[in-house]
Amino acid sequence: MVKLVPEMSLNQPAVDCFPYSRMLALLVEVMTDLIKHGCERIEQTIKASGSRLCSYAERVAFLMDRSKNPDNSPQPPTPTDNINLGPSANPNAKPTDFDFLKVIGKGSFGKVLLAKRKSDGMSYAVKVLQKKSILKKKEQTHIMAERNVLLKNVKHPFLVGLHYSFQTSEKLYFVLDYVNGGELFFHLQRERCFREPRARFYAAEVASAVGYLHSLNIIYRDLKPENILLDCQGHIVLTDFGLCKEGMEPEETTSTFCGTPEYLAPEVLRKQPYDRTVDWWCLGAVLYEMLFGLPPFYSRDVSQMYDNILHQPLQIQGTKTMAACDILQGLLHKDQKRRLGAKMDFLEIKNHVFFSPINWDDLYHKRITPPFNPNVSGPADLRHFDPEFTQEAVSNSITRTPDLAASCSSASDAFLGFSYAPTDEDFQVFK
Protein backbone atom coordinates (compact mmCIF):
# COMPACT_ATOMS: atom_id res chain seq x y z
CA MET A 1 0.00 0.00 0.00
CA VAL A 2 2.89 2.38 0.75
CA LYS A 3 4.29 1.60 -2.69
CA LEU A 4 1.01 2.63 -4.31
CA VAL A 5 0.52 5.68 -2.07
CA PRO A 6 3.99 6.93 -1.09
CA GLU A 7 2.72 9.94 0.85
CA MET A 8 1.06 7.69 3.44
CA SER A 9 2.77 7.60 6.82
CA LEU A 10 3.60 4.16 8.16
CA ASN A 11 2.29 5.25 11.55
CA GLN A 12 -1.14 6.33 10.32
CA PRO A 13 -4.04 3.87 10.33
CA ALA A 14 -5.36 3.22 6.84
CA VAL A 15 -8.88 4.36 7.78
CA ASP A 16 -7.51 7.80 8.71
CA CYS A 17 -5.80 8.24 5.34
CA PHE A 18 -8.56 7.08 3.02
CA PRO A 19 -12.31 7.41 2.80
CA TYR A 20 -13.87 3.97 2.33
CA SER A 21 -14.60 4.69 -1.33
CA ARG A 22 -10.89 5.31 -2.00
CA MET A 23 -9.91 2.19 -0.07
CA LEU A 24 -12.34 0.17 -2.16
CA ALA A 25 -10.92 1.61 -5.37
CA LEU A 26 -7.40 0.81 -4.19
CA LEU A 27 -8.44 -2.75 -3.38
CA VAL A 28 -9.88 -3.15 -6.87
CA GLU A 29 -6.61 -1.83 -8.33
CA VAL A 30 -4.57 -4.33 -6.32
CA MET A 31 -6.84 -7.23 -7.28
CA THR A 32 -6.70 -6.21 -10.95
CA ASP A 33 -2.89 -6.18 -10.80
CA LEU A 34 -2.91 -9.60 -9.15
CA ILE A 35 -5.19 -11.06 -11.83
CA LYS A 36 -3.14 -9.45 -14.60
CA HIS A 37 0.21 -10.74 -13.37
CA GLY A 38 -0.85 -13.73 -11.34
CA CYS A 39 -0.29 -16.37 -14.02
CA GLU A 40 3.24 -15.20 -14.66
CA ARG A 41 4.05 -15.16 -10.95
CA ILE A 42 2.54 -18.59 -10.44
CA GLU A 43 4.57 -19.89 -13.38
CA GLN A 44 7.76 -18.45 -11.87
CA THR A 45 6.92 -20.10 -8.56
CA ILE A 46 6.38 -23.46 -10.24
CA LYS A 47 9.64 -23.20 -12.13
CA ALA A 48 11.46 -22.16 -8.98
CA SER A 49 10.14 -25.16 -7.08
CA GLY A 50 12.86 -27.22 -8.69
CA SER A 51 15.57 -25.09 -7.15
CA ARG A 52 17.88 -25.94 -4.27
CA LEU A 53 15.51 -24.16 -1.90
CA CYS A 54 13.42 -27.34 -1.93
CA SER A 55 14.16 -30.53 -0.10
CA TYR A 56 15.75 -33.44 -1.92
CA ALA A 57 12.43 -35.33 -2.03
CA GLU A 58 10.56 -32.27 -3.34
CA ARG A 59 13.12 -31.84 -6.10
CA VAL A 60 12.86 -35.46 -7.22
CA ALA A 61 9.07 -35.22 -7.26
CA PHE A 62 9.29 -32.02 -9.31
CA LEU A 63 11.68 -33.61 -11.80
CA MET A 64 9.24 -36.44 -12.45
CA ASP A 65 6.27 -34.06 -12.87
CA ARG A 66 5.78 -33.62 -16.58
CA SER A 67 3.07 -30.97 -16.24
CA LYS A 68 5.83 -28.35 -16.34
CA ASN A 69 6.34 -28.95 -20.05
CA PRO A 70 3.57 -27.35 -22.15
CA ASP A 71 5.00 -28.39 -25.53
CA ASN A 72 2.31 -29.61 -27.90
CA SER A 73 -0.37 -29.70 -25.19
CA PRO A 74 -2.98 -32.21 -26.36
CA GLN A 75 -6.74 -31.81 -26.23
CA PRO A 76 -8.55 -33.66 -23.43
CA PRO A 77 -8.80 -37.34 -24.39
CA THR A 78 -12.05 -39.06 -25.14
CA PRO A 79 -12.72 -42.78 -24.61
CA THR A 80 -11.99 -43.38 -28.29
CA ASP A 81 -8.66 -41.55 -28.38
CA ASN A 82 -5.81 -43.84 -29.40
CA ILE A 83 -2.22 -42.79 -28.84
CA ASN A 84 -0.03 -45.41 -30.45
CA LEU A 85 3.24 -45.38 -28.57
CA GLY A 86 5.01 -48.17 -30.36
CA PRO A 87 4.86 -50.81 -33.07
CA SER A 88 5.68 -53.86 -30.97
CA ALA A 89 3.09 -54.94 -28.42
CA ASN A 90 4.01 -57.16 -25.52
CA PRO A 91 0.56 -58.38 -24.40
CA ASN A 92 1.91 -61.17 -22.22
CA ALA A 93 3.81 -58.94 -19.79
CA LYS A 94 2.07 -58.23 -16.49
CA PRO A 95 2.90 -56.84 -13.04
CA THR A 96 2.89 -60.27 -11.44
CA ASP A 97 5.95 -61.14 -13.53
CA PHE A 98 7.96 -59.17 -10.95
CA ASP A 99 8.72 -59.05 -7.28
CA PHE A 100 8.65 -55.35 -6.42
CA LEU A 101 11.24 -54.93 -3.67
CA LYS A 102 11.86 -51.27 -2.89
CA VAL A 103 10.69 -47.78 -3.79
CA ILE A 104 13.67 -45.90 -5.24
CA GLY A 105 11.93 -42.80 -6.60
CA LYS A 106 8.63 -40.92 -6.54
CA GLY A 107 6.75 -38.40 -8.65
CA SER A 108 3.31 -36.93 -9.22
CA PHE A 109 2.34 -39.70 -11.66
CA GLY A 110 3.71 -42.68 -9.76
CA LYS A 111 6.86 -44.34 -8.47
CA VAL A 112 10.07 -46.02 -9.55
CA LEU A 113 10.70 -49.39 -7.94
CA LEU A 114 13.50 -51.89 -7.78
CA ALA A 115 11.96 -55.08 -9.16
CA LYS A 116 13.24 -58.59 -9.72
CA ARG A 117 11.82 -60.55 -12.65
CA LYS A 118 10.63 -63.92 -11.39
CA SER A 119 11.54 -65.85 -14.53
CA ASP A 120 15.27 -65.15 -14.42
CA GLY A 121 16.01 -63.12 -11.27
CA MET A 122 17.14 -60.06 -13.26
CA SER A 123 16.86 -56.67 -11.54
CA TYR A 124 15.19 -53.70 -13.20
CA ALA A 125 14.01 -50.22 -12.34
CA VAL A 126 10.29 -50.25 -13.08
CA LYS A 127 8.60 -46.89 -13.47
CA VAL A 128 4.91 -47.28 -12.59
CA LEU A 129 2.64 -44.40 -13.68
CA GLN A 130 -1.03 -43.78 -12.91
CA LYS A 131 -3.07 -43.33 -16.09
CA LYS A 132 -5.71 -41.18 -14.41
CA SER A 133 -3.10 -38.70 -13.23
CA ILE A 134 -1.54 -38.53 -16.69
CA LEU A 135 -4.88 -38.01 -18.44
CA LYS A 136 -6.01 -35.44 -15.88
CA LYS A 137 -2.93 -33.33 -16.56
CA LYS A 138 -3.10 -34.00 -20.31
CA GLU A 139 0.37 -35.49 -20.27
CA GLN A 140 -0.09 -38.55 -22.49
CA THR A 141 1.71 -36.81 -25.36
CA HIS A 142 4.74 -36.22 -23.13
CA ILE A 143 4.71 -39.80 -21.91
CA MET A 144 4.81 -40.79 -25.57
CA ALA A 145 7.73 -38.42 -26.20
CA GLU A 146 9.65 -39.79 -23.22
CA ARG A 147 9.04 -43.34 -24.40
CA ASN A 148 10.04 -42.51 -27.97
CA VAL A 149 13.36 -41.17 -26.71
CA LEU A 150 13.84 -44.24 -24.52
CA LEU A 151 13.34 -46.49 -27.54
CA LYS A 152 16.25 -44.79 -29.28
CA ASN A 153 18.56 -45.05 -26.29
CA VAL A 154 19.37 -48.75 -26.69
CA LYS A 155 22.10 -47.76 -29.13
CA HIS A 156 24.06 -45.55 -26.76
CA PRO A 157 26.08 -46.60 -23.70
CA PHE A 158 25.42 -43.51 -21.57
CA LEU A 159 21.63 -43.32 -21.89
CA VAL A 160 19.29 -45.40 -19.76
CA GLY A 161 17.69 -48.20 -21.79
CA LEU A 162 14.05 -49.26 -22.00
CA HIS A 163 13.86 -53.07 -21.99
CA TYR A 164 10.11 -53.17 -22.52
CA SER A 165 6.87 -51.56 -21.43
CA PHE A 166 3.36 -52.78 -20.75
CA GLN A 167 0.10 -51.54 -19.28
CA THR A 168 -2.94 -52.50 -17.25
CA SER A 169 -6.29 -50.72 -17.12
CA GLU A 170 -4.94 -48.34 -14.49
CA LYS A 171 -1.17 -48.13 -14.85
CA LEU A 172 1.73 -47.86 -17.29
CA TYR A 173 4.96 -49.76 -16.65
CA PHE A 174 8.41 -48.82 -17.99
CA VAL A 175 10.95 -51.61 -17.44
CA LEU A 176 14.30 -49.77 -17.38
CA ASP A 177 17.95 -50.44 -16.71
CA TYR A 178 18.56 -50.63 -12.98
CA VAL A 179 21.38 -48.28 -12.01
CA ASN A 180 22.41 -48.10 -8.35
CA GLY A 181 25.62 -46.08 -8.26
CA GLY A 182 23.72 -42.98 -7.16
CA GLU A 183 22.93 -39.60 -8.66
CA LEU A 184 25.81 -37.30 -9.48
CA PHE A 185 23.97 -34.84 -7.24
CA PHE A 186 24.29 -37.29 -4.32
CA HIS A 187 28.05 -37.61 -4.78
CA LEU A 188 28.51 -33.84 -5.19
CA GLN A 189 26.64 -33.24 -1.97
CA ARG A 190 28.90 -35.67 -0.17
CA GLU A 191 32.22 -34.52 -1.69
CA ARG A 192 31.33 -30.89 -2.49
CA CYS A 193 33.35 -30.81 -5.72
CA PHE A 194 35.53 -33.00 -7.92
CA ARG A 195 39.09 -32.74 -9.15
CA GLU A 196 39.43 -31.71 -12.76
CA PRO A 197 40.20 -35.17 -14.25
CA ARG A 198 37.10 -36.66 -12.65
CA ALA A 199 34.91 -33.75 -13.73
CA ARG A 200 36.32 -34.04 -17.27
CA PHE A 201 35.49 -37.76 -17.42
CA TYR A 202 31.86 -37.23 -16.40
CA ALA A 203 31.48 -34.19 -18.67
CA ALA A 204 32.84 -36.18 -21.63
CA GLU A 205 30.39 -39.05 -21.12
CA VAL A 206 27.51 -36.60 -20.69
CA ALA A 207 28.55 -34.70 -23.83
CA SER A 208 28.66 -37.97 -25.76
CA ALA A 209 25.10 -38.78 -24.66
CA VAL A 210 23.79 -35.29 -25.44
CA GLY A 211 25.56 -35.29 -28.81
CA TYR A 212 23.83 -38.57 -29.66
CA LEU A 213 20.42 -37.11 -28.78
CA HIS A 214 21.19 -34.09 -30.97
CA SER A 215 22.06 -36.43 -33.85
CA LEU A 216 18.49 -37.72 -33.52
CA ASN A 217 17.16 -34.13 -33.56
CA ILE A 218 16.28 -34.30 -29.86
CA ILE A 219 17.01 -31.51 -27.37
CA TYR A 220 17.33 -32.76 -23.79
CA ARG A 221 16.62 -29.44 -21.99
CA ASP A 222 16.96 -30.65 -18.40
CA LEU A 223 20.60 -31.54 -17.88
CA LYS A 224 21.56 -31.40 -14.19
CA PRO A 225 23.33 -33.58 -11.62
CA GLU A 226 20.01 -35.07 -10.47
CA ASN A 227 19.42 -36.58 -13.91
CA ILE A 228 22.92 -38.03 -14.21
CA LEU A 229 23.28 -41.44 -12.56
CA LEU A 230 26.35 -43.59 -11.99
CA ASP A 231 26.25 -47.28 -12.82
CA CYS A 232 27.89 -49.95 -10.68
CA GLN A 233 31.25 -49.32 -12.39
CA GLY A 234 31.13 -45.53 -12.20
CA HIS A 235 30.08 -44.66 -15.78
CA ILE A 236 27.35 -42.07 -16.17
CA VAL A 237 23.81 -42.90 -17.25
CA LEU A 238 21.58 -40.04 -18.39
CA THR A 239 17.94 -40.52 -17.42
CA ASP A 240 14.56 -38.72 -17.25
CA PHE A 241 13.53 -37.64 -20.75
CA GLY A 242 10.21 -35.97 -19.94
CA LEU A 243 11.35 -32.51 -21.08
CA CYS A 244 12.96 -33.68 -24.32
CA LYS A 245 11.87 -31.94 -27.50
CA GLU A 246 11.80 -34.13 -30.61
CA GLY A 247 12.04 -33.08 -34.25
CA MET A 248 14.56 -30.29 -33.66
CA GLU A 249 16.64 -29.86 -36.80
CA PRO A 250 20.02 -28.09 -36.37
CA GLU A 251 18.65 -24.64 -37.18
CA GLU A 252 15.21 -25.11 -35.66
CA THR A 253 14.09 -23.31 -32.50
CA THR A 254 11.46 -23.67 -29.82
CA SER A 255 10.35 -21.30 -27.06
CA THR A 256 8.83 -23.32 -24.20
CA PHE A 257 9.88 -22.07 -20.78
CA CYS A 258 11.02 -25.25 -19.05
CA GLY A 259 13.94 -26.65 -17.12
CA THR A 260 15.36 -26.11 -13.63
CA PRO A 261 16.22 -22.59 -12.40
CA GLU A 262 19.93 -23.09 -11.67
CA TYR A 263 20.60 -24.38 -15.19
CA LEU A 264 18.36 -22.21 -17.38
CA ALA A 265 20.10 -20.51 -20.29
CA PRO A 266 19.63 -16.73 -20.71
CA GLU A 267 17.57 -17.12 -23.87
CA VAL A 268 15.15 -19.43 -22.06
CA LEU A 269 14.76 -16.93 -19.23
CA ARG A 270 14.07 -14.19 -21.77
CA LYS A 271 11.45 -16.46 -23.35
CA GLN A 272 13.20 -16.08 -26.69
CA PRO A 273 13.42 -18.82 -29.33
CA TYR A 274 16.23 -21.22 -28.45
CA ASP A 275 17.96 -24.16 -30.10
CA ARG A 276 20.08 -27.15 -29.11
CA THR A 277 22.79 -24.89 -27.66
CA VAL A 278 20.70 -24.75 -24.46
CA ASP A 279 22.04 -28.23 -23.74
CA TRP A 280 25.63 -27.01 -24.03
CA TRP A 281 24.86 -24.17 -21.62
CA CYS A 282 23.57 -26.81 -19.18
CA LEU A 283 26.71 -28.90 -19.71
CA GLY A 284 28.75 -25.84 -18.78
CA ALA A 285 26.65 -25.29 -15.67
CA VAL A 286 27.06 -28.93 -14.60
CA LEU A 287 30.81 -28.86 -15.28
CA TYR A 288 31.12 -25.64 -13.28
CA GLU A 289 29.21 -27.22 -10.40
CA MET A 290 31.45 -30.29 -10.46
CA LEU A 291 34.54 -28.08 -10.25
CA PHE A 292 33.32 -25.45 -7.77
CA GLY A 293 30.50 -27.08 -5.79
CA LEU A 294 27.62 -24.81 -6.85
CA PRO A 295 26.00 -23.84 -10.18
CA PRO A 296 27.70 -20.85 -11.83
CA PHE A 297 25.16 -18.11 -11.07
CA TYR A 298 23.59 -19.60 -7.99
CA SER A 299 21.66 -17.63 -5.38
CA ARG A 300 19.10 -18.76 -2.82
CA ASP A 301 16.98 -15.88 -4.10
CA VAL A 302 15.63 -17.22 -7.39
CA SER A 303 14.96 -13.73 -8.79
CA GLN A 304 18.55 -12.74 -8.02
CA MET A 305 19.79 -15.95 -9.62
CA TYR A 306 17.86 -15.15 -12.79
CA ASP A 307 19.37 -11.67 -12.80
CA ASN A 308 22.83 -13.19 -12.36
CA ILE A 309 22.28 -15.52 -15.31
CA LEU A 310 21.09 -12.67 -17.51
CA HIS A 311 23.46 -9.88 -16.55
CA GLN A 312 26.36 -10.89 -14.32
CA PRO A 313 29.72 -12.06 -15.70
CA LEU A 314 30.89 -15.60 -15.04
CA GLN A 315 33.07 -15.77 -11.93
CA ILE A 316 35.87 -18.35 -12.03
CA GLN A 317 37.86 -18.56 -8.83
CA GLY A 318 40.66 -20.79 -7.66
CA THR A 319 43.48 -22.48 -9.51
CA LYS A 320 41.79 -24.11 -12.48
CA THR A 321 43.64 -24.84 -15.70
CA MET A 322 43.39 -22.44 -18.62
CA ALA A 323 41.61 -25.17 -20.59
CA ALA A 324 38.95 -25.52 -17.89
CA CYS A 325 38.43 -21.77 -17.71
CA ASP A 326 38.19 -21.51 -21.48
CA ILE A 327 35.60 -24.25 -21.93
CA LEU A 328 33.47 -22.81 -19.12
CA GLN A 329 33.60 -19.38 -20.75
CA GLY A 330 32.65 -20.97 -24.07
CA LEU A 331 29.80 -23.15 -22.82
CA LEU A 332 28.38 -20.43 -20.56
CA HIS A 333 28.45 -17.65 -23.14
CA LYS A 334 25.27 -15.62 -22.77
CA ASP A 335 24.95 -15.20 -26.55
CA GLN A 336 23.75 -18.54 -27.90
CA LYS A 337 25.14 -17.75 -31.36
CA ARG A 338 28.65 -17.40 -29.92
CA ARG A 339 28.37 -20.27 -27.46
CA LEU A 340 30.67 -23.26 -27.80
CA GLY A 341 28.75 -25.79 -29.87
CA ALA A 342 26.74 -23.21 -31.82
CA LYS A 343 28.53 -23.97 -35.11
CA MET A 344 29.35 -27.68 -35.16
CA ASP A 345 27.47 -28.93 -32.12
CA PHE A 346 29.11 -31.93 -30.37
CA LEU A 347 32.14 -31.83 -32.69
CA GLU A 348 33.12 -28.46 -31.22
CA ILE A 349 32.82 -29.82 -27.70
CA LYS A 350 34.89 -32.95 -28.23
CA ASN A 351 37.62 -31.02 -30.07
CA HIS A 352 38.10 -28.48 -27.28
CA VAL A 353 41.51 -28.60 -25.61
CA PHE A 354 39.89 -29.36 -22.25
CA PHE A 355 39.00 -32.81 -23.58
CA SER A 356 42.38 -33.45 -25.24
CA PRO A 357 43.23 -36.21 -22.71
CA ILE A 358 40.07 -38.11 -23.76
CA ASN A 359 40.17 -40.85 -26.38
CA TRP A 360 36.57 -40.60 -27.53
CA ASP A 361 36.44 -44.05 -29.10
CA ASP A 362 37.69 -45.64 -25.89
CA LEU A 363 35.25 -43.52 -23.92
CA TYR A 364 32.30 -44.61 -26.06
CA HIS A 365 33.16 -48.29 -25.67
CA LYS A 366 33.78 -47.92 -21.92
CA ARG A 367 37.44 -48.84 -22.19
CA ILE A 368 38.42 -45.99 -19.85
CA THR A 369 38.39 -46.90 -16.17
CA PRO A 370 36.11 -44.46 -14.31
CA PRO A 371 37.88 -42.26 -11.75
CA PHE A 372 35.44 -43.33 -9.03
CA ASN A 373 33.87 -46.71 -8.26
CA PRO A 374 30.60 -46.68 -6.27
CA ASN A 375 31.59 -50.08 -4.85
CA VAL A 376 28.06 -51.46 -4.76
CA SER A 377 27.91 -55.05 -3.56
CA GLY A 378 25.03 -55.99 -5.85
CA PRO A 379 21.49 -55.01 -6.91
CA ALA A 380 20.27 -55.04 -3.31
CA ASP A 381 22.84 -52.40 -2.29
CA LEU A 382 20.69 -49.29 -1.92
CA ARG A 383 23.03 -47.02 0.04
CA HIS A 384 23.21 -44.52 -2.83
CA PHE A 385 19.41 -44.00 -2.80
CA ASP A 386 17.53 -41.60 -0.54
CA PRO A 387 16.29 -43.49 2.56
CA GLU A 388 13.09 -41.46 2.38
CA PHE A 389 12.19 -43.57 -0.64
CA THR A 390 13.71 -46.93 0.20
CA GLN A 391 12.10 -47.05 3.64
CA GLU A 392 8.61 -46.64 2.18
CA ALA A 393 6.48 -49.77 2.02
CA VAL A 394 5.71 -51.12 -1.46
CA SER A 395 1.97 -50.89 -2.13
CA ASN A 396 0.12 -54.11 -2.92
CA SER A 397 -1.74 -52.25 -5.66
CA ILE A 398 1.42 -52.37 -7.79
CA THR A 399 0.74 -56.03 -8.58
CA ARG A 400 -2.97 -56.23 -7.81
CA THR A 401 -4.00 -54.28 -10.91
CA PRO A 402 -6.15 -56.06 -13.54
CA ASP A 403 -4.33 -57.47 -16.52
CA LEU A 404 -3.77 -55.80 -19.87
CA ALA A 405 -6.92 -57.16 -21.53
CA ALA A 406 -9.07 -55.07 -19.23
CA SER A 407 -7.62 -51.83 -20.57
CA CYS A 408 -8.93 -52.23 -24.07
CA SER A 409 -12.53 -51.45 -23.09
CA SER A 410 -11.86 -48.48 -20.80
CA ALA A 411 -11.15 -44.79 -21.16
CA SER A 412 -7.51 -45.75 -20.87
CA ASP A 413 -7.59 -46.65 -24.56
CA ALA A 414 -5.69 -43.38 -24.86
CA PHE A 415 -2.61 -45.53 -24.21
CA LEU A 416 -3.41 -48.34 -26.61
CA GLY A 417 -0.15 -49.49 -28.18
CA PHE A 418 1.99 -48.44 -25.24
CA SER A 419 3.31 -51.96 -24.72
CA TYR A 420 6.68 -52.59 -26.34
CA ALA A 421 9.48 -55.14 -26.34
CA PRO A 422 12.74 -54.53 -28.29
CA THR A 423 14.79 -57.34 -29.73
CA ASP A 424 17.37 -59.00 -27.51
CA GLU A 425 20.14 -57.98 -29.92
CA ASP A 426 19.55 -54.31 -29.09
CA PHE A 427 20.64 -54.87 -25.50
CA GLN A 428 23.60 -57.06 -26.28
CA VAL A 429 25.50 -54.19 -27.88
CA PHE A 430 26.23 -52.12 -24.78
CA LYS A 431 24.29 -53.52 -21.84
From TrEMBL:
Superkingdom classification of source: Eukaryota
Enzyme class: transferase
InterPro entries, A to Z: AGC-kinase_C, Kinase-like_dom_sf, Pkinase_C, Prot_kinase_dom, Protein_kinase_ATP_BS, Ser/Thr_kinase_AS
Entry-linked Pfam families: Pkinase, Pkinase_C
Segments for region (Disordered): 66-89
Cellular component terms per the entry's GO annotation: nucleoplasm
Protein's UniProt keywords contain Membrane: no
Single GO MF descriptor: protein serine/threonine kinase activity
Gene3D superfamilies, sorted: Phosphorylase Kinase, domain 1 (3.30.200.20), Transferase(Phosphotransferase) domain 1 (1.10.510.10)
Keywords, ordered alphabetically: ATP-binding, Kinase, Nucleotide-binding, Phosphoprotein, Serine/threonine-protein kinase, Transferase
Bias (Polar residues) ranges: 80-89
EC number(s) from the headed UniProt entry: 2.7.11.1
Chain coiled-coil ranges: none
Family: Belongs to the protein kinase superfamily. AGC Ser/Thr protein kinase family.
Name of the molecule in the record: non-specific serine/threonine protein kinase
Organism: Chrysemys picta bellii (Western painted turtle)
Lineage of source species: Eukaryota, Metazoa, Chordata, Craniata, Vertebrata
